[in-house]
Amino acid sequence: MLRTLRKKMRGIIWAVIIIIIPAFVLLYGAGRKGYSSSGKRAGTTISRSDIWSESAKSVAGLLFGEEISMNEYRAAYRHEIGAGRMQYGDRFEFMASRLDLFQQAWDRLALRKEAERRGIFITDSELAQLVTSYPSFQADGTFDPELYSTFVESRLRMRTTTFEDMLRESLGIQKLIALVGSTAKISDREIYDEFVMQNEQVEAELIVFDSGDFADKVRVSEEDLEAYFQEHREDPALIYAERVSVQYVLADQREMQDGITIPEEQLPIYYDDHLEDLYRHPAEVKVRHVFFRAAGGPPGEEPDEEEETPLQKAEKVLELAKSGKRFASLAKEHSEDTLAGKEGGLIDFFSTSNWGQEFDEAALALEKKGDLSSIVKTPWGYHIIKLEDRKEAKTDSFDEVRDEILATLTFEEATVQALEQLEEFLSAIESGAVWEQLAEKKGLTIHESGFFARHDGIPAISDSGLLVSEAFKLTADGEVSDPIETSTGCYLLHLAARQPRRAPETLDEARDRVEQGARIQKTDELTRQQVEKCIEAVSSGDSFEAAAKKFSGTFLHPEPFSSTGFVENIGRAGDIARVLFRLSPGEMAPEQQLGTKTIIAKLVKKIPADESSLEAQKPNILARLALQKQRALAREYKDKLMGSAGLVSYIQQAGP
């Protein structure tokens, strides 16, 4: 639990994106493969809706030869929904129907178990440190006292305990990713090529035509509108998307909690079951360190014989530290840990770090503030560690966490009861009961959604993407969905009506969109005419500056730029620079299109990279290339892990 965090505040949680996303991108970015012992998904015995009504102890499937309980699988699935909302924000509701969250839950379980097998665990202090130290989460230097629980419980519709479990799990997966990615090796040639790409520059003259600058010169007549309508009435921009209207009933587990009593004897059982993972806290230390990266970055590469080795650098700094030199200053000056180095090498309280077992054992062995380690070798390189503070191991007593356990079990029971209530409602409908009469009998309010498209949300419901997805699976008027658990409660949907996808029948029906499209078309045509005239003038000998003025373009002679740089008033230089690097001075590049801008460019000269700065830039280049390779390795590892996990899922597959 984030006990240290809760004692101070319940701060805003948006910045946990930096915690959630690395693990979530791995899960979602590596494809959507499903695996069983035969390499394909197993047969289906449990429908996807039934995972909420199945007994918590029933079996969801097999993973690494072990039975996975439905309760454990449900928790992983809820975590996937939470992580998805962090990744996609408001777009998650649209993306939900495209993501196989059920399979991603299996991926998460497999990665979590692998992290546990490797001894990777996350402490309370690590969670609190990451959340509380990020400036974007602070108001006047401290967390806002109200927003944490409000955001998690209202926006994500989960208990803070569940949310914190998701954070802890994602951090563990992130550590596993870092461990797997640490095998990435970057050659000197790769570093040099990246250096050249970032530092080789071109000087160029540019003429920019922005179609928006010509919009006020365009006039659109009624004849233009009619012609555009007839030509484009089947275009996606004019088509009315398929829409549906549903009625729905809601069972809100939050409102049901007051009527739930959890037997007192269940609380110590939960405490005992979770003593090790939730309530026993190992010793933690707060340290500063100076880090020297292993030669070439990843392990295995040897330095040039003439260069001072990382070990030699570490030995010199250790002597300076022993002589009384201020350790924080040494870290800022010498450390190659670019993040902690800026803070004087400070690493806040931890029991397990991202630096590996050797680092952790050396740090935890320090007993008194100011104690200094010898040189510590890890797979990353060499470290010198100084102890700043220490917290001894502690176990939360049952009395300290009793209320939190009660709240957790109460919410879980409320969720089960809400889903059971809707299951009973659905069974009655399937037995012939009338929707409206049954709702009145059960004391449930029927809500009307009004018509909405797939890319819309249901207006009265925040975070309604899963509901929209399920609504469009209903095909016959009167059809009722399975119970759906979302961040805003548990729902049953009843299809009221459907409007098919169609083209507009008359101009007046789509006049606003037709006028917008016709105006853009005429503006683009006018822009194209000016661009062609300008190119002809330059080819005939006009200077770039004169031609730009003559044909209402914007002349630019920006500072030299590289392929990875930016161009004033344009943006990223990428494509423009790459084309210019292939030319000789004085040659004109083919026109480039960037959004609404058309760009004519002429190379003035090429400026070679200043190789004297290679050594200074090498650490940052190495870190960037290593990150790219680490991501690729991690995704490959995830696929191999799932291929060897022997997954047999009893959860129903998604339809086509």
Describe this structure in words.
By secondary structure, the protein is of the alpha+beta class. The protein folds into four domains: 3-185 and 629-649, Orthogonal Bundle (Triger factor/SurA peptide-binding fold), CATH 1.10.4030; 201-238 and 510-607, no CATH class; 243-258 and 406-499, Chitinase A, domain 3 (Roll), CATH 3.10.50.40; 283-392, Chitinase A, domain 3. Helices cover 45% and strands 16% of the residues. A four-stranded antiparallel sheet has the order 16-5-20-19, with helices on both faces. Helix 3 packs across helix 5 (101-117), helix 3 (70-88) packs across helix 8 and helix 8 crosses helix 24. It is flat. The relative contact order is 0.17. The model is unreliable at 1-22, 24-44 and 296-303 (pLDDT under 50).
What's the gist of this structure?
This protein has 656 residues and is α+β, with helices and mostly antiparallel strands. 45% of the residues lie in helices and 16% in strands.
Strand order of the largest sheet: 16-5-20-19
Biggest pleated-sheet summary: 4 strands, antiparallel
**In terms of structural class, how would the helical and strand content be classed?**
alpha+beta
Identify the CATH architecture of the largest domain: Orthogonal Bundle
By DSSP, the count of extended strands is 21
CATH topology of the largest domain: Triger factor/SurA peptide-binding fold
Give unreliable regions as ranges. 1-22, 24-44, 296-303
Q: What is the terminal-to-terminal distance?
A: 40 Å
Which CATH class of the largest domain applies here? Mainly Alpha
What is the domain total for the residues?
4
Overall pLDDT metric: 80
β-strand percent reads: 15-25%
